[in-house]
Amino acid sequence: MGLGKVAVKIRGAECGIEAIILGVITSIGGFLFGYDTGQISGMLIFEDFIQRFGQDQGNGEKAFNPTIQSLLVSLMSIGTLIGALAGAYTADWFGRRRNLTVGVAIFVIGNIIQVTAMTTWVHMTVGRIVAGLGVGILSIGVPMYQSEVCPREIRGAVVASYQLMITVGILISNIINYGVRDNPGEDSDAAWRIVIGLGIGFSLPLGIGVLFTPESPRWLAGKGRWEEARMSMARLRGLVHDPNHELVNSDFKEMEDSINEQQSAGQGTWMECFTGQPSGIPLLAYRTLLGCALQFFQQWTGVNYFFYYGATIFQSAGIDDPLQVQLILGAVNVVMTIPGLWFIERVGRRVPLVVGGLWQAVWLLIFAIIGVVLPPQDNPAAGIVMIVAACMFIASFASTWGPFIWVIIGETFPLRTRAKQASLATAFNWLGNFMIGFLTPYADDGIGYAFGFVFFACNFVAAGIVYFFVFETKSLSLENVDIMYSDPNISARTSKKWVPAGYISRNERDDTYWERRHSVVGATGAAASEKVGDKDVDTSPERGIYEYGAMPPAVPLHNTSNLAKLARRALVTAGPAVASQASHHFERRGLSVNHTQGVTLGVIAAYVVVIALLWNLPYVRWVLWPFKMLVIAFHEFSHAITSCCTGGRVESISLDPHEGGVTHMRGGKQFITLPAGYLGSSLIGALLTFCGFNIVASKVASIVLGVCFLLTLWWARKDWLTIVTILLSVGLLVAFWFIEHGEALRFMVLFIGVMSSLYSVWDICDDLILRKVNSSDASVFAKRYGGSSQCWGVIWSLVSLIFMVCGILAGLAAFKQSFEQQEKDSQDFIPTVRMMMRV
């Protein structure tokens, strides 16, 4: 408790030494993340590691084939993804501190499994998956804990230190790899065992040290332990000797108002992250999707393309000592993260992310063009330029996208759902991480340095997402972030100008405001009430009666039901007309994803799972046959249409729900016609998914679908079971049209849309992974234009996923109506059962 009395002044406010020490200790979690990321790159080229875990090449030598190398590197990310999702529960169950100790313990177990691996790559991979579970828990737990405990004046820098320690971890692992390569030597098993074993020692200061730091005051308050929360907050301000200090009271009051309001609706659920109900927290789904997108694109900037496979990439580029290049990249990573700690508090969040994304895109474009046009193995100067491009990319990432995303994730989510939203977002980070780890060997084998063009595009898109959707949260308390999101006059691009009530600027408090507030609160100990119509209206000084448009300090504006109540209270002073307009304004503002849309998103997720399970499940997969026939028809006719449009001729088309379809073509531009099947069916699926958000749009789509179903009967004429299921599907379309104004029809259209959107994923898994057929569009494309079939298949699948996401986002933007409003709009489109009964 001695350190709890020591504080330093930062921007005019006391910040406790304990908060700074806490930031240092917890950032070791980032070090472990980075150390585990960096160690595998060097180990993959160690001779003993290759001889133990590589595959016999048939000539007496061993090497890693792309599949085993992909699994060995990437499956750790599956462990981290699971750990990140589990962290949502462990962080709430055990508390923010002990959750970190749990993560460290699992990480240590995973490292022990790896150190004891002898001759099978599966043993090593299991250890990496278990270690990944621990890293996943830490990757959600550390930023969450840091953001909840650190005073707002240092919160950005402390959370950004997590990324700094990731870079330090990568650098240290590269240094150790470089050292053990010569002593004891890469042909000794001690080399890679030392690298892994040291990770255990590095993790212990975090696992033990965090037990001596203050618990999160917000977690304590969420558990009803208010006095402990106040003392924890005082320790973090260095004011444990004065827990009723004005600064502590101000922080505590903001936290208390927010928590009480959010807990009034009960415990947050996973569905609430997408619907915002029943809490009514503003833009909750918006923030969930934004967090997931930012974390995913942080990985698809391409940073781990260099840190996972940098040694292998630069070795193939003819660089004499690729480990030296890894050391250079690691050093740039560490050094350039330090300016990021300054940017985060001085410049803010938005501008550095936009500029950083565009800067990274430029250098990756240079990297890809040089690698493709001037193969570095034949042009030493090209190899040097590529190293410079990689360094410039890493420099930008380290000072912007590396640290900033973790800060935004820690700041954006409200306490009620913070653990679950942070868990979802972090899971998307690890999903992207897994995809990079798994795909890079195939991409390197197939398209080589052209993979850089993919990262160029991703950085460009990521910069656009920040510009249009990320709110500026610099210098705001976590509670004021929620209030900012509730302001209907603020958008992401204007959010920098927003200032909370009681502040002249984000960094300067209005003392007269707080004096008035305290005098009002102290003026009475009992709440008065006035009756307006049949309602009791609270007019106590704590709640107050304020002129419409003013912000009452004691009523948090992060709940739409509260906003509507506030508008109704204006009846007392502003009259019925103004109150009616105000109530309508606040209730109309609502959330970006309403309840009806949230249900639709949940149905889409359920459809993905159901289709994946039924696709190849014996005895019941016939349920999908009519839909398979339809989607295969979309696929094959996309081939046919593009062939005709590019000067080709279609000779025949065959469809089969068991084996797929074939389109025989002559001529045309095969560079376009071959991928057109998957991309065409995915685009149609995206359009159907879009229509599935609205009943009238679904009715229009169902007319087209009905005709398409009937056309597929021609190809099913020899298969009576397929004919029966197709006719049954058409019957369902007709029946659903006339039931409840078409609500069931909407979900059937949505099902077909999801299946068509993801047909490329299902079919490519069949063709390229399960090897059900010997040839596929991707394999033909690879033979004709180069690259591997797996690589092209995955790229087409990613494009299909992008189409599907665009369809969903378009549906969310275009169809805001509730179910009741959709039902009303659709009832006159064509008579339904209910209307005919009335007639």
From TrEMBL:
Q: How does the protein's chain sit in the membrane according to the entry?
A: Multi-pass membrane protein
What PROSITE patterns does the record tag this protein with? MFS (PS50850), SUGAR_TRANSPORT_1 (PS00216), SUGAR_TRANSPORT_2 (PS00217)
What SUPFAM superfamilies does the record tag this protein with?
Answer: MFS general substrate transporter
Database matches in Pfam families: Peptidase_M50B (PF13398), Sugar_tr (PF00083)
Q: Which residues form the Major facilitator superfamily (MFS) profile domain?
A: 22-475
Keyword list, A-Z: Membrane, Sugar transport, Transmembrane, Transmembrane helix, Transport
Which protein family is named in the record? Answer: Belongs to the major facilitator superfamily. Sugar transporter (TC 2.A.1.1) family.
Protein name, UniProt field: High affinity glucose transporter ght1
Q: Record the organism.
A: Alternaria burnsii
